[in-house]
Amino acid sequence: MTIPGRYAVIATRDRPTELAVVVNALHKQHATVVVVDNGSEPRVSPPVDHDTDGPLPNAPTVIVDYEQPPNLSRLWNLGLDEAATQAANAGLQRWDIAVVNDDAVLPDGWFDACANAMRYIGAAAACSDPHSRITAPLVKTTPDRDAFTRMCGWAFVLRGELGFRFDETMRWWWSDSDADWAARAAGGMVIIPGYPVGNVHANSTTVGALAEQASRDRATFAAKWGWAPW
Q1: Which of 120-129, 171-180, 201-210 has the lowest mean pLDDT?
Q2: Residue 26 burial (10 A CB sphere; 0-12, 13-18, 19+)
Q3: CATH of domain 6-224
Q4: What is the percentage of the chain residues whose pLDDT exceeds 90?
Q5: Which secondary structure element, helix H or strand E, spans residue 113, and what is its range?
Q6: Which residues contact 181 (CB under 8 A, 6 or more apart)?
Q7: HEC per residue, 7-69
């Protein structure tokens, strides 16, 4: 079963085991999943119903994009566009979109808790506290330098009808922080206590060309906002 108006976007490359775990977790939390495959070998394919040779009910939509080095912001945007199209085709006026890393470990109830807090408060985005430092929901409406209460970059929820898209001039890092600050200006970004999300391979791919890109992305962020918080 899925909940109308609940979507999730996952960009992935060559992590079939981790991807299966997070897709299963999102299905358990009733999300329609969009996977953006950045040239995995073998290619990510939706599971097939062998009785009908068609996709299984609630199987993820898979979009393939081969650009290397990857532009993670564009991969996410492809997923957001697909979710928006599905929402429009369903006649929805509002929808929630989770953006989740392919190695995220989502606790049960995470999507409900984030989306409900976001809607109740009227915020534009929500996440759970990955550092277990807060005991009550925290709403951010202005930029600050607190790295421990920023939007969790590997699992967060956006109000889909606001039409957020990631800044593709930040190709690898910083576009999540850019989205965080944009959300603060558009109604707030709320962090909820509990429901910490694991990140199995944190920063493991930010080496070589991607580490150099991350440095350029910081400069782009600073030029856009006038400063960078860290």
Answers
A1: 201-210
A2: buried
A3: 3.90.550.10
A4: 89
A5: helix 110-121
A6: 143, 225
A7: EEEEEECCCHHHHHHHHHHHHHCCCEEEEEECCCCCCCCCCEECCCCEECCCCCEEEECCCCC
Q: CA 36, CA 41: separation in Å to the nearest integer? A: 14
CB of 35 within 8 A of CB of 23? yes
CB neighbours (10 Å) of residue 98? 26
Residues 6+ apart with CB under 8 A from 49: 55, 56, 57
| 120 residue type, one letter | Y
CA distance 147 to 131: 10
- Residue ranges of domains in the chain: 6-224
Burial letters for 113-150: b for 16+ Cβ neighbours within 10 Å, e otherwise?
Answer: bbbebbeebebbbbbbbbeeeeeebbebeebeeeeeeb
pLDDT, tens digit, for every residue of 73-105? 999 999 999 999 999 999 999 999 999 999 999
Whole-number average pLDDT of the chain: 93
Q: Which pLDDT score is estimated for 112? A: 97
Determine the average pLDDT of the residues in 61-65. 96
List the beta strands (DSSP E) in the chain: 6-12, 32-37, 48-49, 54-55, 61-64, 96-100, 104-105, 125-128, 138-140, 155-159, 189-192, 198-199
pLDDT band at 203; cut points 50, 70, 90? confident
Rounded Cα–Cα distance for residues 82 and 80 (Å): 5
